């Protein structure tokens, strides 16, 4: 009989996380948490997509025409990709002296054009898809930044980023694909770099550096990561110093490579990259009046970002003069804004130094590092304030809010420990705060998307919110003026639109009389109303303010044409062509002037020069050529163009 023993059966030991013998870094545990994380990524992606699905019914808006519908290179499709990669951003529409180098979004637009033609539904679909990707990558990054110990906090931060209405400009405006791609590739690079620190695979380092380069090719905003990446890999993900140094070195190398390529391309295009072409209507800081301070006004503008992050209303497509007034350092709002940024900087630095891996410090410093590029203090950018400028920085804000939820609503030990689990989100205190906030912001986002339906709806809605905004009032009138070309409109409707346009344009000039575009637009409206003397006066005022305003020159030429002052009209049209060589349609107008002067040979020469502009609208150019040849008695030539017209 076998002797009994007290020995227990051997128990199967659970496998502990393995250690990398080289550096002692724990490998991440996979399994149930990985499955939960995948589900959360799907939830965030669906949430983001649903919030912006109503943009699919919107048309092209604002600058979409410059970069998509009227962009010569984009409309060439994939054959233009090599040229897009070696030319300035505006090459396909008409370069300006402060042009930039952002080829990647244009390449994507060219591919879309090749596959689908110019279709706003497709553009909005891809913007929404990219935004969903941005939200997911942000969640994964926050989870890694918090050492995978606070998945609930990472989820709250990413969900808040998804629903925040301040992002509507970036997602609803197809042109802002550059911002979305920049963010997507930037955070993809951060996720890959963190994986490299933990696993040490060279492919992760190389792919991360490539993604950072693609982010820079999308938009220069990613250059701020020269500060963000050392912050992360010196203070937060710094278990392996050698790998951290490799990441920082690779970031510096790709940034220098991008800056070198950008400099060479802009020099080849004879573009200075300065602010010489910025107008007052773009950024009012180009002309600061006596008694005000440009730096103080810029600080006031920076305060608007803080305000809009907490209270995202009213949201505007442009914050032009005088929505944000000029100010000096005696202005209480300037002092509050300055104080807020000083305190944020001091608090961020203090917590970074004093508290190891403090996420509050990261949220603050990430916001400051990414918004600094758009401060207008060191150099002027395209606007005093724009919602798209805070797209990156808002990620830091969302993290701070999520951390605030943890600190003030999950303060007891049981709830604090539960941040590693999602059950904490269903606690009454947390739900009472997050549910109303998400519902409010989500509804605001959906409602704002509808306002991006088309130029008229957007500008009119925003002008009602900001009646003192000169550019918005001007833009409403310009859209009305453009819509008047619709031949299907009844005469009484056209008359009403002209009166509305005049009212908006006059309001724009009350706010800022120095707006050459507003004078030119008002002149055109007077011309449509057959008030030729008033129209001429406005166009001459526009040219006094801006002698190279091609719209004013063309409109003035039209006035002279209507008065049978054909020689003066020809002079204006020729000046417009010399300023903007893309204005080939003016050759048709010159030809018509010569026709009415009975100078048929000159008429034919200029009408033929206009043919390339009207390749898709032959009925607009061939009939005057046919008529001119007939009046010259050249019936064979007339018959040839009649054949081409069929």
Keywords:
disordered N terminus; single chain; 28 helices
Written account of the structure:
The protein is an all-alpha fold. Helix content is 64%, strand content 0%. It has helices at 32-52, 64-69, 81-84, 103-116, 120-145, 151-163, 168-172, 177-199, 202-218, 225-235, 241-268, 294-310, 332-354, 359-371, 393-409, 413-417, 428-451, 455-465, 470-483, 491-511, 516-528, 532-545, 550-562, 566-579, 585-596, 600-609, 618-632, 635-645. The longest helix is centred in the middle third of the chain and has 28 residues, at 241-268.
Order of helices and strands: HHHHHHHHHHHHHHHHHHHHHHHHHHHH
Largest sheet: none
Alpha-carbon Rg, integer = 30 Å
Portion in strands? under 5%
Terminal Cα span? 112 Å
- By DSSP (H or I, 4+ residues per run), the number of helices equals 28
Shape descriptor: elongated
Give the beta-strand count: 0
**Uncertain runs:** 1-30
Name the structural class.
mainly alpha
Q: Portion of residues in helices?
A: 55-70%
Overall mean confidence score, pLDDT = 90
